[in-house]
Write a structure and sequence with these properties.
The chain is mostly helical. It has three helices and no strands. It is elongated and about 70 Å long.
């Protein structure tokens, strides 16, 4: 843990605008990380329910698998949208 004087000395060495650019990059990385949590949970729920459906009715496994892959694709699109939004906010 740096002391307050050491932190001030580090901040004094940064050029104009460097601190803001660094904070933007950190914010974009954290924002995308948080945006990826939701789709990750959603994909887990979709796959878990599809496996349950296939185990209960094996004859409908083809339909359940197709629906599962569609659900995964739509859920993954949310993560890609989050990635694009935070990349556009970075500059």
């Amino acid at each position: 843990m740096l002391s307050l004087l050491a932190q001030i000395a580090i901040f004094a060495q940064t050029g104009p605008g460097e601190m803001l650019e660094g904070l933007k990059a950190i914010g974009a990385g954290l924002g995308y990380g948080l945006a990826a949590i939701g789709p990750g949970v959603g994909i887990g729920i979709v796959v878990g329910n599809a496996i349950t459906a296939m185990a209960r009715q094996p004859e409908s496994a083809g339909v359940a698998r197709t629906t599962m892959f569609l659900g995964i694709a739509f859920t993954e699109a949310l993560a890609l949208i989050g990635f694009v939004v935070f990349i556009l906010l970075l500059p």
